[in-house]
Amino acid sequence: MDSGFDSNGTFYLINKKKQTPIVFIHGVGLNHSIWEKQINEFENTVLIYDILGHGKTPLNKNKISFDDFSDQLLNLINDLKLDKIHLVGFSIGSLIARNFATRYNEKLETLTLLGSIFKRSNDQQQLVNDRFENTKKERKIPHSSLKRWLSDEFLESNPNERKKILKILDENNLDNFLKVYELFVMHKDEEDFKKINVKTLVITGENDTGSTPEMSTNLSKVINNSYVKVISKGKHLCSIEYSYDVNNAIKELIND
After folding, report:
1. In this structure, is the dihedral angle defined by the CA atoms of residues 229, 69, 14 and 105, taken in order, positive or negative?
2. Could you tell me where the DSSP H helices lie in 115-241?
3. Among 69, 50, 34, residue whose Cα is nearest residue 149
4. What is the pTM of this model?
5. Residues 6+ apart with CB under 8 A from 127
6. How many CB atoms lie within 10 A of CB 154?
7. CA dihedral (229, 230, 236, 240) positive or negative
8. Strand 199-205 to strand 226-231: parallel, antiparallel, or no bridges (unpaired)?
9. pLDDT tens digits, residue range 71-82?
């Protein structure tokens, strides 16, 4: 694999192959390494990177928007001379992917939205508001997040995976994390979904309490040429716990 920084300082890793590249966008508080179970599982080139303010990529603005994240991705793929991509976004990465698709649809062959929120209820919104305020108060990303992301059985039988994710969370620059997390918390689903004109997979875990199957179903209804896949028993990080199922779903989309 090749690694480096683009002209704007975005850190990336690329596994060069012949097929159209698949670009994976990670979630808030995480980094490129959460895609370890995807990087070598496709016949396509795979590109993973650290979003603004995460991993090895700096964040030099006090106020940011989803346009900033889309422009970050556009600069990266332009620097790497990638004409078309398959785009996969997870959690806040799916919101970045949605923004990118509405602005730069011509760059996409397919779109995958993994663990994507849509039209939170009042109770669901209050839960994320409370988590955000608690993180600001405690000045620490809570380790309890793992209980929402992965099953107890997986965490017990995969202690190294647990340690790896907790280490990523603990190494965050908290000020940068809060800037990005606030975008996720306050998101209002105001994208112009009619501008998304590529085949789209909306996928989530059966037991994902933050990005529910109901949300995915409703999101698919507003995106033309889209369909829903629910990963049996999966939680938010089903791309790790049920990577085989998630990878196969993406393969079916891009090879159809």
Report:
1. positive
2. 122-138, 145-149, 152-157, 159-170, 174-186, 213-221, 238-241
3. 34
4. 0.98
5. 210
6. 18
7. negative
8. parallel
9. 999 999 999 999
